[in-house]
Amino acid sequence: MKSVNSFIKALSENYYSEFLTDAIAEEIDFHRYFLPVNYQSHYYYELRINEIHLKRREIINNVKKLYQNALSQIYIELSSQDPDNFDSFLAFNIEAVKLQLKILRADFYVDDKQSRYFSVIDDNPNLQELIARTHDRTSSNEIEIDKKIFDLISDSNFRKVESIYYLGALYERSKALSFLPLSLFVIGHDFVVQLKKIQQILFDLKEEKAVNPKINWIGKKTHIGYILGTLALNGFIDAPKNKNGEINYTAYARLIKQNFNAEISEESLRKYLNPEDDKFEENRKSFEKAKFNMPNIIEVS
Fold first, then answer.
1. Residues paired with 39 in a beta bridge
2. Which long-range contacts (CB under 8 A, 24 or more apart) does 208-215 make?
3. Beta bridge mates, 260
4. Which of 33, 39, 188, 246 is the Cys-Cys partner for 45 at CB 3.0 to 4.6 Å?
């Protein structure tokens, strides 16, 4: 199912890259990007906290929509297909989402190397000074990155200094980043819960079938309507009634379908049950020709 695949794919994405811009890009919007980081052996600028909030909200809303679409598609398909065909589908996708949940759980801790959001913040004060100077020039819309910044970024022997960032700011950054994988984990976990509920519904239906198996009708599909209709007319079956006391053939056909395996639709069955329908009359002539006779229950009581 396309919607389910799209949801699982979105759940598995590494979204940290959407918070970054390349440090050697020709133009960098320092109103949006602020923090220099080393991520996967490459230098970037990370979004400011308020921009991270906006971006993660956009991502979460998109994944929520995909979640709803996936769940809706499953229920639609389930209503129009044989439930027995869904066992392997549900089991496969539950395991697929569980795998993504393990990855997302590791992503919670963005300061841990196991997280896909892990990056090293650049504490070099000289680089910070260059950022500030570049930012000052943005007011004239002339973004010129000094060659010194390229030399500084490519220098692997950065001088170790005490962090120039406030502890509170670092905490807020970690919290802002980790909120995204945590939210995606909650959405993915709920999807697994919903799939397991569907599994239970299918299991209950199978149990019901096993306890209350249907009767196999091996005669012609036209015969079942005439015979059961005649039994009801002659008092042997207490068929569903309308308020006026007459047989409700629509409800009667539905009840027969629930208890018999017969290759006939409810609508066709209703016609073969009803003595006022031409379909019933056609069968009556065939059965009378074969000398079939059904007495009224009073006659044999």
1. 42
2. 214/258, 214/259, 214/260, 214/261, 215/259, 215/260, 215/261
3. 215
4. 33
Angle ∠(78,83,84) on CA atoms, nearest 5: 150
Q: Are 187 and 11 in contact (CB under 8 A)?
A: yes
Distance separating alpha carbons of residues 259 and 140, to the nearest angstrom: 81
Structure token pair of residue 260: 């018999």
- How many residues in the chain? 301
Sheet holding 42-47, edge to edge: 20-22, 42-47, 33-39, 120-121
How far is Cα 104 from Cα 14, in angstroms, rounded to an integer? 9
Decide if 108 contacts 182 (C-beta within 8 A): yes
Task: Supply the pTM of this predicted model.
Answer: 0.61
- The amino acid present at 174, given as its one-letter code, is S
Question: 46 is written with which tokens?
Answer: 């990370």
Q: What are the tens digits of pLDDT across the range 10-58? A: 999 999 999 999 988 888 898 999 899 999 999 999 999 999 999 999 9
The C-alpha atoms of residue 226 and residue 268 are separated, in whole angstroms, by 11
CB 192 within 8 A of CB 97: yes
Assigned token pair, 168: 């509170």
Reading the block at residue 7, the tokens are 């949801």
pLDDT single digits (tens) 73-101: 998 888 777 767 788 889 999 999 999 99
- What is the rounded distance in angstroms from the CA atom of residue 145 to the CA atom of residue 137? 10
Distance CA 120, CA 41 (A): 10
Question: Which of 212, 211, 228, 290 has its CA nearest to residue 264?
Answer: 228
